[in-house]
Amino acid sequence: MRKKRVSLTQHLIEAHRTSHNIPEALRLLLEVVGRACKTIGSAVGKGALGDILGSTQTENIQGEVQKKLDILSNQILLESNEWGGYLGAMASEEMETIHPISNDYPKGKYLLLFDPLDGSTNIDVNVSIGTIFSVLHAPETGQTPSESDFMQPGSKQVAAGYALYGPQTLLVLTTGNGVNCFTLDREMGSWVLTQPNLMIPEDTSEYAINSSNYRFWHPPVQRYIREMQEGATGLLGKNFNMRWVGSMVTDMHRILNRGGIFMYPADTRNPSQAGRIRLLYEANPMAFIVEQAGGAATDGHNRLMDIQPKRLHQRVPVFLGSKNEVARITRYHSEP
Ligand code: F6P
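Above: the input record for the complex with 6-O-phosphono-beta-D-fructofuranose. Below: its predicted structure, written as tokens.
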């Protein structure tokens, strides 16, 4: 017998019926983002055959060399979302300033932020990468949004999600009513609900951090990692495992499924930069997803989603994942 399949569209319509939090414009936005991610996923899958590997000669605002796929993914997201009438403006890791919707199209009531291709150092070596996105309300005045309109804490997000381009292509989405995971049926070209209501286990014995930076970390983080490395004979009395893919989307997807904690702390290398992860289009959407899945997300002191952003490309230290481990590392930051 044919198994009943729920598509992204059906899921969004039914969720709106029961919780009334996905108006039509938001549904269109999420469907178009989902479609753009299919296009990016298809380009990723072509690899060398699609001439998408390698770097351009340009750097983005973060001073990182842009990969061909960074630029292509950014273009795909911009072009797909420009005309729909549901956006006021967009912002991206790959663009210095915001991208207001052109006057050729009607303006809408949402703002879209994205990291078009997360984990781009993994592109050329065929390791999973992703797209992260966040949706905010645009100002109600009907005026063209400015950068200051994007300076909203994560708690104001209307929706957030990521696409993961791995052995399977996945879309993980929250609109503030739990977290759902869709798998791309590559033959049919449709997103099919495969994991409703993802929940992160509260406890974990797995952590993710780039431990080559150990010597640069601040004492609370060094203590936290040291205790876990001491294993069963140490203070914590159990062994821990470490995993670090180097694509936040991929590491977070593992954590969402089997628990764990993802850390990118601030360190002593560049005191003017708080770690590596960008607040508005990486940390906040992931924090929204994690909290909706029963986990926690802090910068070591405060809830990530309570931070008032000051700059579009602001960085923030992040500790996200299983609730009890995030609580422990956050506590260490306040202990002498
Ligand atoms: O955007 C930042 C990012 O690429 C994340 O996706 C990833 O987790 C991290 O940087 C990798 O950092 P590192 O190069 O220190 O391993």
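Notes for the reader.
The pocket of 6-O-phosphono-beta-D-fructofuranose is lined by residues 118-119, 210, 246-248, 251, 276-277, 282 (CB under 6 Å).
The first strand starts at residue 55 and ends at 59.
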